[in-house]
Sequence to fold (356 residues):
Amino acid sequence: MRIPESRGPASAALIDVLAASDGSAPDRDSLRVSVDEALGGTEDILRDDDLQLTLFLLYQLGYGGVDGGDELEWDLTLLGARAAIETALEAALRDRVPVPERPEPDAESVASVLFSLTGEDSGPSLSRFVAKKATDEQLRELLVLKSIYALKEADPQSWTIPRLQGRAKAALVEILADEYGGGRARRMHSTIFAGAMTGLGLESTDGVYLDYAPALALASVNVMSLFGLHRRLRGASIGLFAAYEMTSSLPNRQYGNGVRRLGYGDEVAWYFDEHVEADAVHEQIAARDMAGGLVEAEPHLLDDVLFGAAAGMAVDGWLGADVFRSWTAGASALRRSLPATLEHAAQTAAPSAGPA
Fold:
């Protein structure tokens, strides 16, 4: 991933470290100082562009990497800065996210609560807006926002595999196998999503639109990474992923309807169509075998399963509400508008291969 523009002192200090040709910076300690100052001054860490970008880049060192950062994944100074932001982010989520009343620690009871939680109508429907009203420009903005996760789809959850055992582990791997295309690279969900971006005239390199994504779009992925990378939060990781799978099928059907309403074909709609079918099956496995199975094996993780599900839905709900407000006000939902040249590119882009 290329190095993006900074959004404040903390991200600027980190980018100085990443940009140094020898993997170091003149004053590495300035990163931790800048992070601590940013944490002390932020009014809302979830909407703080500087801190969310800093955390996103620190996590990215453990994913596909960042230009110039190959030697920095386990740097102690960077890990210390990451831990400080993680602590504040987790505390903010636990403080403001309402968690459902805890059920009995058995699979059916857990599944029942998760289905109830994910079935709640928490605000305006972004997917219905896309299905009926979104413009081409708004559809491209949607894909830009989704690209922050979808181009590395399921990678944050894959960190959780070695932290589970038995039924929950088997269920997680079963779902992830579909996310990764069942062994066929062209059917990986991240690859299909890249094809949808190409079909709309967008670039599909991971992180190419990072400068356009608002803080909450980064926070949505950062929360997944936070939960997936800490063994003590494995329950939260499973709860979040279960909720994600359980709230995917119907919105993706509407996104697909919007794609076709705007005149695009199967090569663009494939990503959304794939999730309509796959996640209708996944939601049962996720609720009962993955989340429910984990709680039956480790009852003490029940509260974290509920917290993870509620936290993931809350952050995505806040982001969706922001996007909806911007679009209905006739404004861009991105930090900056996409280049005007994209309109021509979308008209001339070669279609990607559809499902086979």
